[in-house]
Every structure is written in structure tokens, then in C-alpha cells.
Automatic annotation (TrEMBL):
Protein source organism: Sphingomonas kyungheensis
Enzyme Commission designation: 7.1.1.1
UniProt keyword annotation of Nucleotide-binding present: yes
Described purpose of this protein according to its UniProt entry: The transhydrogenation between NADH and NADP is coupled to respiration and ATP hydrolysis and functions as a proton pump across the membrane.
Enzyme class at the top of the EC tree: translocase
Reactions mediated catalytically: NAD(+) + NADPH + H(+)(in) = NADH + NADP(+) + H(+)(out)
Keywords: NAD, NADP, Nucleotide-binding, Translocase
Coiled-coil region list: none
Protein name: proton-translocating NAD(P)(+) transhydrogenase
SMART domains noted in UniProt: AlaDh_PNT_C, AlaDh_PNT_N
Length: 373
């Protein structure tokens, strides 16, 4: 069993899909590992560390040749898989709805494409969940990015020259990223409030020492919603939420938005009119900017000024913490493959619950139901 680790080709992608730690573990399972030269350079994993862990470090064609499993962070161009064993697995965040052409090309090339972001949110798959591991780091980094753009301090400081008051931070969307953003802003001494459409988050917000800001007039999503995710809200809910946000946002110094709806564009939570009510020097970080954006006027890949407020729209936030993001991503992939490792077969064999959820292509065809309908 040969596992190939690719150097990421996407613009600005600094992460790597295996670390020397996971290479060692794959070798302990009985696999051979080949790593493309320079694959971990931007994530504090030099070639020498992979070699010391037992990997063969080589050029792409030699790495991919006869590999049965190819690991990536983002999906590679199908041409990069040329020479892999017939039916080889490509395991990565494949963005199947954004890169449908590529999925077709994987099918045509006869590879089995496994989209790690489609991993079901079930207890036994938590350790394989790349969305959680990466979102957690994004939530943390969003607060640091906000603090870096903010021309004031976050904690209250009592100095001989006078008192600086604590920054008010508002977190919109309290999933994995939002919870970590709340915790990070609290650690930095900010006064934190947060909101979500899922009623279950109220208690989580409080347990982190932040203030819940909720639409009470119109019902949100009771419990955890479908698979823990939010859905599109009614017009009445949206109107009540906009009113609530308008009243609250004018008093905030930093807003972090993280709201996503699976399979749909991100919900618009902050309008230009609302931004104009914030005081000059305030900062808004839109973590959903690449999915359509929660904030009117936020631009992917840029920091823009609107009414004296800085709108921060960094792309690929986990990649901004490439070493830790890679370490966790790599462990997710190892946890996935090792959980299903069949000792007799000397390779992983998936069960139906997880296999059917993440498998996009097999036997030369696209097989995922969400891509067929
Ligand atoms: P997500 O990234 O899909 O969305 C982020 C947050 O935005 C969610 O909390 C969502 O409710 C919220 N949101 C959506 N529309 C909104 C709106 N209009 N206004 C305000 N907020 C809005 O979510 P996520 O981080 O992937 O987590 C979703 C849930 O899944 C959480 O409850 C999490 O604990 C759960 N989860 C479970 C597992 C598991 O059991 N394996 C793993 C990870 C996450």
C-alpha cells in the first residue's frame, strides 16, 4: 500500500495533508509513504523531517506513481493523479459543488474521490471531521485578525494615564468557529455577546461567559437543527433579526460573522446601513466571505473601508495558521484511514454509512446522490 502526499497547487494554500507525525503512523500501519518535495515547506514541515519519519521525498510523478491513496488538502487537478494505481483514492476537501468539472474528470480517470468535508456529523466521525478542526482555528484567527486591524486594545486597562475600556465583541453564528471566537475574545479581555438561529447555542454562549442576543419574537431553530446545521430562515425571522442586530451593532467595536447554511449561499446578516451606524475604527471580520458573505461590502481576499469601519475578508483563514491547521487536518485524515484499516487487506475498507456519505466517484462514474439529482 503506497500513500502519496501532494504539494498543494492552489493559490495561497499553505497547508499540507500529512505531517511527519502522521507519516510515522501510516508507516506503522504497514504503508509506504511518498511526499512531494516541498509539500510541507509553508507549514513548518521541511522535507528532511518527512525523510526522517520514513517517507520517500521526491518529485510529483515519482510520488504519485502506483499510489493507492493520494492525500491532499484541496482537490488536485486530475492531471496531477496521472500514474496512480487504477481505482486509487484521492482523499481531500474536494469542494464537489464548486468544482463539479473536476469530479467528472476524477470519474473519467478511474480514481475514487472521497470528499472529506462531507463526513457525517456523527459521534464516531468527530476525530475525522476536517470542517470542525479547521473552523475552530478560523474562529481563533478571526479574533486575532480583528485585533490586528483594531487601533485600540481589547482588555480593560487601568493605567496611571487613565482607563481604557474593554472592547465590545459581537459574534454572529455560534457553530465551531463562533464558539472559538467567543472563547478567544474572552481570553483577550473583551466584553463578548453572540447570536445564532439555533436555540441550543444560547446555553453554550452563556457557558463561555458571553451574553446571548436572541430573536425571541419569532421562532428560530429548536435544538440542533438537521445534523447540527442551520437552514434558511423565514422572512419574518430575518426581519426580526435585522432589527435586533441594528440595535446591537451600533454599540459594538468588533463583529465576527461565521454564519453558514450548508449547500446555500451564506445568509446576509449585516447591511451597509448598519455598518454606517458603527463608530469609526470598528472592525468586522466576515469568515463567510468566500461563501457569499454575511456582510454587505466585504470582499474576499481584501480589507476594505466602509464608513470608517474595516471589513476584513481574508480567504482560506485556516491556511493563515498553516502549521496547526495542517497538524489537525493530517490527524483527521489519519484517524479516518486508520479507523477503517483492514489488517488482512493491508488497506482501508469503508463501511456504508461513511463511505456513501463521502464517496463522489467509483468505477469510472459519479456516484454521490447529491451530484446526481
Ligand atoms: P456552520 O459552519 O454550518 O454554521 C455556523 C453557524 O452559523 C451555525 O451555528 C449556524 O446555526 C449559524 N447560522 C446559520 N444561519 C444563521 C443566521 N441567519 N443567523 C445567525 N446564525 C446563523 O456550523 P458548524 O460550525 O459546522 O456547526 C454546526 C453544528 O454542528 C454545531 O452545533 C456543532 O456543535 C455541530 N457539530 C457536530 C459534530 C459532530 O457531532 N461530529 C461535529 C461538528 C459540529
Amino acid at each position: 500500500m503506497k500513500i502519496a502526499v501532494l504539494k498543494e497547487a492552489a493559490d495561497g494554500e499553505r497547508r499540507v495533508a500529512a505531517t511527519p507525525e502522521t507519516v510515522r503512523k501510516f508507516i506503522a500501519l504497514g504503508a509506504q509513504v511518498a511526499v512531494e518535495r516541498g509539500a510541507g515547506d509553508a507549514a513548518a514541515c521541511p522535507d528532511a523531517a518527512y525523510a526522517a519519519a520514513g517517507a520517500r521525498v521526491a518529485e510529483r510523478s515519482a510520488v504519485v506513481a502506483d499510489a493507492q491513496i493520494v492525500l491532499g488538502v484541496q482537490g488536485p487537478e486530475p492531471a496531477a493523479l496521472q500514474g496512480a494505481a487504477p481505482g486509487a483514492w484521492i482523499v481531500a476537501a474536494l469542494d464537489p459543488f464548486g468544482h463539479r468539472d473536476r469530479v467528472d474528470a476524477y470519474a473519467a480517470a478511474g480514481v475514487e474521490a472521497l470528499a472529506m468535508e462531507l463526513m457525517p456529523r456523527i459521534t464516531r466521525a468527530q476525530a475525522m471531521d476536517i470542517l470542525s478542526s479547521q473552523s475552530n482555528l478560523s474562529g481563533y484567527k478571526a479574533v486575532l485578525d480583528a485585533a490586528a486591524e483594531y487601533d485600540r486594545a481589547l482588555p480593560m486597562m487601568m493605567t496611571a494615564a487613565g482607563t481604557i475600556s474593554a472592547a465590545r465583541v459581537f459574534v454572529m453564528g455560534v457553530g465551531v468557529a463562533g464558539l472559538q471566537a467567543i472563547a478567544t475574545a474572552r481570553r483577550l479581555g473583551a466584553q463578548v455577546s453572540a447570536t445564532d438561529v439555533r436555540a441550543a447555542t444560547r446555553e453554550q454562549i452563556q457557558s463561555l461567559g458571553a451574553k446571548p442576543i436572541f430573536v425571541d419574537a419569532v421562532e428560530g431553530i429548536a435544538g440542533e437543527g438537521s445534523g447540527g446545521y442551520a437552514g434558511e430562515m423565514s422572512d419574518a425571522y430575518k426581519a426580526a433579526q435585522a432589527e435586533l442586530v441594528s440595535a446591537h451593532i451600533a454599540k459594538q467595536d468588533i463583529v465576527i460573522t461565521t454564519a453558514l447554511i450548508p449547500g446555500r449561499p451564506a445568509p446576509r446578516l449585516i447591511s451597509d446601513v448598519q455598518i454606517a451606524t458603527m463608530r469609526a475604527g470598528s472592525v468586522i471580520v466576515d469568515l463567510a466571505v468566500e461563501q457569499g458573505g454575511n456582510v454587505e461590502g466585504a470582499v474576499a481576499g481584501q480589507v476594505v473601508d466602509r464608513h470608517g469601519v474595516r471589513l476584513v475578508g481574508h480567504r482560506n483563514v485556516p491556511s493563515r495558521l498553516a502549521a496547526d491547521a495542517s497538524a489537525l487536518f493530517a490527524r483527521n485524515l489519519y484517524n479516518f484511514l486508520s479507523t477503517f484499516w483492514d489488517k488482512d487487506a493491508g488497506r482501508p475498507v469503508l463501511d456504508a454509512e461513511i463511505g456513501d456519505a463521502i464517496r463522489l466517484t467509483q468505477g469510472g462514474r459519479v456516484v454521490h446522490p447529491r451530484l446526481l439529482s
